[in-house]
Write a structure and sequence with these properties.
4 helices, 35% helix, four-stranded antiparallel β-sheet, two-stranded antiparallel ribbon, alpha+beta
Length: 111
């Protein structure tokens, strides 16, 4: 990996994630999702990454769930991918936005 790639987070993540998909036998796309509710109470759970690009990381949830309500209320989250077999982890923090209705409909139609 070149020094330029190392500094570009989406390229770096893509390369590490491709390696994880080769060597992690179960759910290489599993990630911990941390949210906070409007009162600041944190919670974390494991969800599955469905896609990513330079806009961000895509996962789906029911907006009426605890995590969905927290994401709608605070619009912030943290992700952590951990692949012990690779001795590698990736942490991500940032603002959350909803996918477009068309993207969400296409995903749920594929299930």
């Amino acid at each position: 990996m070149s020094r330029t790639d190392w500094n570009e987070p989406f390229i770096r993540f893509g390369k590490v994630f491709d390696e994880a998909k080769r060597v992690v036998t179960k759910d290489p796309n599993a990630m911990s999702l941390a949210t906070v509710d409007p009162s600041g109470r944190p919670t974390v759970r494991v969800v599955l990454l469905k896609d990513f690009d330079t806009r961000g990381f895509v996962f789906y949830t029911n907006y009426e769930s605890t995590k969905g309500a927290a994401l709608l209320a605070t619009k912030v989250a943290a992700l952590n991918f951990y692949w012990p077999v690779m001795d590698q982890q990736v942490r991500i923090e940032g603002t959350v936005t909803q996918t477009s209705p068309d993207e969400a409909d296409a995903y749920f139609a594929s299930r």
